[in-house]
């Protein structure tokens, strides 16, 4: 598993969220791209951000990697 996990789109029950949870257990960095509250594909990233993932909102995230 890589040092950083980035979730761009995912439903709340998806393989991406399983990977993010495994990364959390392995003390990896988790980043997520926020999206519209009405989009099913934003449920996963928005959930991760609410749980403490670092949001990616512009190109400045490259400095965090």
TrEMBL record:
Q: What are the recorded Gene Ontology BP terms?
A: DNA-mediated transformation
Q: Which InterPro entries match?
A: DprA (IPR003488), DrpA_SLOG (IPR057666)
Q: Which domain of life is it from?
A: Bacteria
Pinpoint the Smf/DprA SLOG domain residues.
Answer: 1-59
Query: Which Pfam families does its entry note?
Result: DNA_processg_A (PF02481)
**Per its UniProt record, what Gene3D superfamilies does this chain match?**
3.40.50.450
Question: What family does the database annotate?
Answer: Belongs to the DprA/Smf family.
Protein name (database record): Smf/DprA SLOG domain-containing protein
| Source organism of this protein record | Lactobacillus hominis DSM 23910 = CRBIP 24.179
């Amino acid at each position: 598993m890589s040092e950083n996990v980035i979730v761009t789109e995912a439903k709340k029950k998806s393989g991406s969220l399983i990977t993010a949870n495994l990364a959390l257990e392995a003390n990896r960095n988790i980043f997520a791209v926020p999206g519209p509250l009405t989009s099913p594909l934003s449920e996963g990233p928005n959930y991760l951000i609410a749980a403490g993932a670092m949001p990616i909102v512009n190109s400045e995230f490259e400095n965090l990697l």
